[in-house]
Each structure stands twice: as C-alpha cells, then as structure tokens.
Amino acid sequence: MKTIRWGMIGCGDVAEVKSGPGFYKCENSTLQAVTSRRIERAKNYAKRHNVSKVYNQADELINAPDIDAVYIATPPSFHKEYAIKCARAGKTVYIEKPMAETYKDCLEIIEECKKTNTLAFVAYYRRAMERFKRIKKIVNDKVIGDVRLVNVTLYKKAAKEDYDRNNLPWRLIPEISGGGKFLDMGVHEIDILDFIFGPFLEIEGKASNQAGLYEVEDIVTANWKFQNDVHGTGIWHFTSFEDCDRVEIIGDRGKIYFQFFSEKPIYVTTKEGVVQYEYKDPEHVQQPFIQSIVNELIGNGKCSGDLESAARTSEVADKILKNYRIKKGFSKFI
Predict the structure, then answer these.
(1) Which domains does the chain have, with CATH numbers?
(2) Quick check: bond before 98 cis, omega within 30?
(3) Distances from the Cα of 77 to the Cαs of 22, 80, 173, 269, in angstroms?
C-alpha cells in the first residue's frame, strides 16, 4: 500500500508535539522533509525527529519530486501563498488553522485547488477526536431531545508574555496572525459547532480591546442561529480574572455540558440522571485527523473536514471581527 511522503513548512511549537510526530507515526505515512525560515531550527527538528531531508527554502520542498503532501505549519500570513503554490505544484496540502487570514483568502485557495484538482485540508483536528465525535452522536441520536440552545464560554487570564508589548507572541500581531487569541482558540469551537450542527445560518458579533495590552481584540461576544431554529451565544475573554471553559448544549429533554479545551468528562443530563463520558486526548492531538487524511489519500476512507467547512469558520470569524477591524484600521482584513 502506498506511503504518503510529507513535507513540513515551519518547525515551531505546534509541530513539536501536537502535529509533527503524527506524520511519521500514522500508518502509511512518513515525514520526509522539513524547512523553516530559521534553517537552524529546521535542522534541529530534523535531527530530533529523524527526518531525512532539510530544505533551505519552502519552494524547494513544495516542488521536490519525492514529496506527495505538504503541511503548512506557519503563521496565517503565509497560508494562502504556500497553499496556492502547493496546489500549482500538484501537492496535497494540509494547512494549519485558521485556513487563511480572511474568508476572501480562503476562497482564493479553494478556487486554485479546484482549478488544479488538488486535495486540501485544514487543521481543525478536533473533528477526529473521540470526545467530539461522541458529542455529535449524542446530539444526532437525540439523547437530549431537540436542541434549543448552544452556549460557549471561554475566559483566560492574560499570559505573562502578553504584557511585553515590544516582544509580543506572533499570535497577537495582527499583520502576522490576522487577529488575537479568538483566531487561535475560538475558531476551534466555531468549527466544532459547524461539525455538530452544520453551517451557521445567522451570526452577529462584537469585539473590543479592554486591557490595552496589544492591538488585536481581547474580548469577543457573538450570537447565532443554526438550522431548526437552534440559537446560541459565545463569549471569549482573554484578560480575565480567572479561567473558565464551558460549553452547554441544551435540548428539550436534557443537556450536555463539557469543557472544550480539557480532558474533563462530558456530562449528559436527562430525566434518567447524569451520564459521564471520559476520554484521554491522544499524545499527538492531530494524529487521528492526519490519519484520516492519509486514509483518504490512499483510498481507504474520508476525512471529516474539508476546505469548504474550514472556510465557513473563517467567514464566521470575519463577520464577528468586521467592525473591530474597521475601527482599528486593519484594512488588510476588511
């Protein structure tokens, strides 16, 4: 059976444990080559992970004849450029989330992939994790009846590095990330709601910067509606007094409660009582999703995420952040 030979662009934190090892630990898959803007980082990564090739430039890796698929593990400002280059080179592409800096950029990627008949995926990997597949099944099986309401809450204390305005992490620099921590964490929750309930039919949102630690938003609120008149709200606050992670799915015969970014149990409450479901995250959280991509590429299954669903998440984020971006003069993203 064919082995998919991966090349990886970017050797930062996400590639160290969450994703990178998955490419060589999955069945019928190997990590063939890496590259990075900081070539010494790429060489160090290759040595520690037994990767045989290091390329000096991303273009060299993309066009290498012994590479079948490319993982773009860079900040979002590079996603569109590299994804389009991969498509034109005939390489399957796996893009870190968010898919691109804006929904418009996502559409350009989709257009190029269609034009070149290229398969492409985005790292909304929680779709392949057992805990979220279980939640989707509980909803689909109507264990809690017809869903009426979906509420998402995420509060985070400001991190130590958030206070160093002259040396902020790239996730808080708008020209690199496209936005703040909402685009790093909140989009995972938006995507899972799409996975469970389908596309958002209506979405309204507001964003602000309350603490003044950086230029991008630090609080986001939203309300939405799905098919079957399912309503919901979301709040993401990243300079909070305390941490809070809570998702509630309320039905007419019960409810589901869980913490999104935690291994703590899923609680399902009905008139029969409370049932708990417990799942441990994989050591490399992207590995099950990567395996599903590999399986699709070798004709042995179907990945649960595609470009269209990933683009929808960017569209929702753009709508929520639109007025804040206008106010701040982030013209690149308007």
Answers:
(1) 4-124 (3.40.50.720), 130-280+314-333 (3.30.360.10)
(2) yes
(3) 24, 7, 11, 43
How far apart, in whole angstroms, are the C-alpha atoms of residue 118 and residue 114? 6
Reading the block at residue 156, the tokens are 């985070």
* Residues in CB range of 81: below 8 A, 6 or more apart: none
Q: What would the pLDDT profile of 237-277 be if each residue is shown by its tens digit?
A: 999 999 999 999 999 999 999 999 999 999 999 999 999 99
Query: Residue 79 has which token pair?
Result: 């996603």
Cβ contact 224:200 at 8 Å:
yes
Number of other CB atoms surrounding residue 170 within 10 Å: 13
Is residue 120 within 8 A of residue 283, CB to CB? The reply is no
Alpha helices in the chain (DSSP H): 13-16, 20-25, 39-49, 58-62, 79-88, 103-116, 130-140, 174-177, 186-197, 287-297, 307-328
For the record, the structure tokens of 85 come out as 């280059």
pLDDT tens digit sequence for 192-246:
999 999 999 999 999 999 999 999 999 999 999 999 999 999 999 999 999 999 9
